[in-house]
Amino acid sequence: MPAPKCRPHAPARRYVLAAFWLAWIAGASVAMAESGMVEVNQLPRLPDAQETTDSQTDRVVYTVQGVVPSTVQSVKTLMTDTGWMQYVRPLEETATGLLFKKGVHGLSVSFTQALGRPDRSAVHYSANRIYADIPFPPGATDIVYDERRPYFELHSPRQHRRES
């Protein structure tokens, strides 16, 4: 009696199945990332803020009285007082804008002098996607963090004891 014929395995089936799973995983991670975007039109603003753009969920621009250097300091204080933690990206310590993180939400803030108004500064809020969410410990300072890959460095307050 002849041996039954075995159908050769179709290697393409494996690739189709792998492609399906990769597409499904990519779709799930995009959906999860979408929920992590902060609504910038709900963020705190400096006193006397005058919005200059239509309210959008991913960016907003407003102007305030004052020059850019003092506005930068005021925004740093405002954001840290409301629970946002400032960080810089690796190798970008001299960037002109500010980066903040609060939970899974990221925020990029940049500054310009308001057009035609030398007495006013423009503050630009942009939602910043966090891909590699690493929690910041309370009280951490000098945070170097990359929201796109797992890179994290900081100084944390510690109590030093002298050993006798």
Describe this structure in words.
The protein is an alpha+beta fold and 164 residues long. It contains 2 helices and 8 strands, in the order H-E-E-H-E-E-E-E-E-E. It has helices at residues 11-34, 68-81; strands at residues 50-51, 59-65, 85-87, 98-102, 105-113, 120-128, 141-146, 151-155. The protein has a 6-stranded antiparallel β-sheet with strand order 1-2-6-5-4-3, with helices on one face. The longest helix is centred in the N-terminal third of the chain and has 24 residues, at 11-34. It is elongated and about 95 Å long. The N and C termini lie far apart (91 Å). The model is unreliable at 12-33 and 159-164 (pLDDT under 50).
Class based on secondary structure composition and strand pairing: alpha+beta
Strand sequence of the main sheet, in spatial order?
Answer: 1-2-6-5-4-3
Number of helices: 2
Instruction: Give the overall pLDDT as a whole number.
Output: 78
Detail the poorly predicted runs.
12-33, 159-164
Give the CA-CA distance, first to last residue: 91 Å
Largest sheet: 6 strands, antiparallel
| Total strands | 8
Q: Measured on Cα atoms, how large is the radius of gyration?
A: 24 Å
Helical residue percent? 10-25%
Q: What percentage of the residues does DSSP assign to strands (E)?
A: 25-35%
